[in-house]
Amino acid sequence: MDILSDLEFRGLINQVTDREGLAKKLAEEPVVLYAGFDPTADSLHIGHLLPLLVLRRFQQAGHIPVALVGGGTGLIGDPSGKAAERTLNPKEVVEEWTQKLRNQLSQFLDFEAEKNPAQTANNYDWLSELNVIGFLRDVGKNFTVNYMLAKDSVDSRLEKGISFTEFSYMIMQAYDFQQLNEKRGCSLQIGGSDQWGNITAGLELIGKTNGNQAFGLTVPLVTKSDGSKFGKTEGGAVWLNAEKTTPYQFYQFWINTDDNDVVKFLKYFTFLSPDEIGELERQVKEAPEKREAQRVLAKEMTTLVHGAEAAESAIRISTVLFSGDVGSLSGSEIEQAFSDVPSTELDAGTEITLLDLLVQVKAAPSKRQARQDVESGAVSINGVKTTELDKVVRASDGLEGRFLVIRRGKRNYYLVKFQ
């Protein structure tokens, strides 16, 4: 299956300019293409995955992806999809985030390939060399205000107002495409559906300045069947950085995918074959209670982003929590599994009665209630049910001499760390 047919099968083509011309060029030679990622944080999140993985798909098909980090445009802010003006970050912060994103991109693209290795770029390299007069004469003159006002990214902001800074973003991104086209032979830009106006502006500039052949392609906005926003949880965004979203939390995000979304996400995000996806789709229809498609999706995505070892650890944590046998978890797995439950730190030399501990960690509102919970068998420590009312708890009782996992009832967990 050629790359465009594969993208079509996966539902990954939202809009494309000159489909026939692009298909012909892709069949004739390796094509240089790029997608841009502005450093608006110190990590990418799963909202960036779709265009990033499309770059990976193109590389696997023999083409040359350029991952552009917007060290220059990141100082300005893209108005696309935003209801209000972005906060401008200090230059040194944007520089730091730019480097972190460049490092992160190397997880997904092969920059060491013997044939057609991926490339990185930072648009600060050329945007910082522009002066106002040159920019207005050489770039700005190619765009009418009417043309820019008609773009969705601008039009959607006119009622509330848009600064000249963000208004100019479109031209700066167009200049990125032109520079990559002239300096690296880049003839295709890809991006999310909200980038269509910026991409076509780049094609406009290329057409007026050098007349080279160039194309644009957008991937769809990822939506969930229940109407909620993709990539968001109660704790916020799902990050690709393990320090911001643990591999276990990342795994849980995917395994909780709704039956109505799981096949779509398998097509969008995994590199499984059409036959493999078809078999999982059959299982969703015939045995949805087994959630096999969700397990495959979660394992594939966690392996892709965090590696096979982290994926296996996430699976083990999930299995252990289901069975209640937390005593088999390592210290790092305990911290992952219980990162979002109430946590209490105690001095390593602390000795405290179980009843007092239950009150201190807020597992019980009073010693009387704590006593009733213990007597009724509702309390377990590190997976072992505890009924001793006079039990004294020490660090030596903890897993690895540090961790106590207290469970009250079936779902209420509390973590104690001896420091």
Walkthrough of the structure:
The protein is of the alpha/beta class. Helix content is 44%, strand content 14%. The protein has 19 helices and 15 strands. The strands form four sheets. It has a six-stranded mixed sheet with strand order 1-6-5-2-3-4, with helices on both faces. A five-stranded mixed sheet has the order 9-15-14-11-12, with no helix packed on it.
What strand line-up does the widest sheet have? 1-6-5-2-3-4
Total strand segments:
15
Unreliable stretches covering 5 or more consecutive residues: none
Give the overall average pLDDT.
91
Number of helices: 19
Share of helix, binned: 40-55%
Helix and strand topology:
Blueprint: H1 3-9, E1 15-16, H2 19-28, E2 32-37, H3 49-60, E3 64-69, H4 91-105, E4 119-122, H5 124-127, H6 132-138, H7 145-149, H8 152-155, H9 164-167, H10 169-184, E5 186-192, H11 196-209, E6 215-219, E7 232-233, E8 236-237, H12 247-255, H13 259-269, H14 274-286, H15 292-306, H16 308-323, H17 331-337, E9 343-346, E10 352-353, H18 354-360, H19 367-375, E11 379-381, E12 384-385, E13 392-393, E14 403-408, E15 412-418
Parallel strand pairs: 2-3, 2-5, 3-4, 5-6, 9-15
Antiparallel strand pairs: 1-6, 7-8, 10-13, 11-12, 11-14, 14-15
